[in-house]
Amino acid sequence: MSKPILSICIPTYNRADKVLKCILSSLEVVSNEIEVFVCDNGSEDDTWNVLNSIIDNRLRIIRNSVNCGFALNLLRVVEESKSNFVFLMSDDDLVNPKFIDSIIEERLLESSNLGLIYGSIYSIGDKNYYSKYNDTVCRGSLAYKRCAIKHPYMSSMLFSKSEIDFERLRSYIKNEKHFMYPQEVMVLMILNRQKEAILRSDIACYQGEPGKSFIEDETEYFNYSQRIELVAQYIRISDDISLNRNLSRILYKNLADIVVQVLFDKIAWGNLKSFKLKLKKIGFYISVLKIKGVGLYLGVRFLLRVLRTSSFVKIIMKIKSLIKSS
């Protein structure tokens, strides 16, 4: 097989049945110019035997002798892929092969300016879009606004790995207590090089039934203190990769948007009783306000969200509509 123009990269661990479905959906791609590259993170179930049972010359598999953690496994499967362009997939999701074939047929991967492509994600269980994009091509500040820290879900992210500093990523994994979203930091690196981002309305993958989650189960992601640390981590990393002032401001605004979303997300806070819930939210809000760069934007965005959801605003809007109709 000659060098592929696209690598569908799937890091996996202890999900034999799920990764099989993911791989089979990937191999439905018609083009022979791809590789499906899987890195088994030392699974203790039947994953390795399942991987070896699949016969297709486009499939390549490797295995870590021990579980090195989610972030390093993700880093390895991206870095050791044969193509410059990587399509990242979670092992419990399904590739839409038509999306991959259309990207290849349109020769989008031949552009030296291309940094990343995001496709829409459709949830099979919810029978609705998990994420839906409008067809857009952007770069610079607009690409940062649309893409920076906006796509924590790993699947359906296609990017150029030539813009990624893998040694720097390894240092983050080593020095940060929990490095939860290495793929999001890859995006920061790519956009910092002023590369083009393409957002497509076409479905890139189907969200399957999730298995055990590294982020939720191993890093206590839904613990509000861990989310505070995540915001601070992004600020530290953005300083380290030397974003210019304008891009830093956009990043702060995007982070503020995420924090406000978390504050108004009932699911994220679990089944805490009312008084305890309020204390948690207040603590979370105050802690993030203290983080460099994010506090000012958080205050403004929180106020706007409160106004949008308040009954006062609804009354004003109703009065306006009555005046217009009279």
The portion of residues assigned to helices is: 40-55%
Mean pLDDT over the residues: 86
Assigned CATH superfamily of the largest domain: Spore Coat Polysaccharide Biosynthesis Protein SpsA, Chain A
Global structural class: alpha/beta
| Total DSSP helices | 13
Give the name of the CATH architecture of the largest domain. Answer: Alpha-Beta Complex
Count every beta strand, where a strand is a DSSP E run of 2 or more residues.
10
At CATH level 3, the topology of the largest domain is Spore Coat Polysaccharide Biosynthesis Protein SpsA, Chain A
Q: Could you tell me how far the N terminus lies from the C terminus, measured between alpha carbons in angstroms?
A: 72 Å
Low-pLDDT runs of 5+ residues are none
> What is the strand content?
15-25%
Give the total of domains: 2
CATH class of the largest domain: Alpha Beta
Supply Rg.
21 Å
Task: Specify the overall morphology.
Answer: globular
H and E order: EHEHEHEEHEEEHEHHEHHHHHH
Instruction: Describe the sheet with the most strands.
Output: 10 strands, mixed
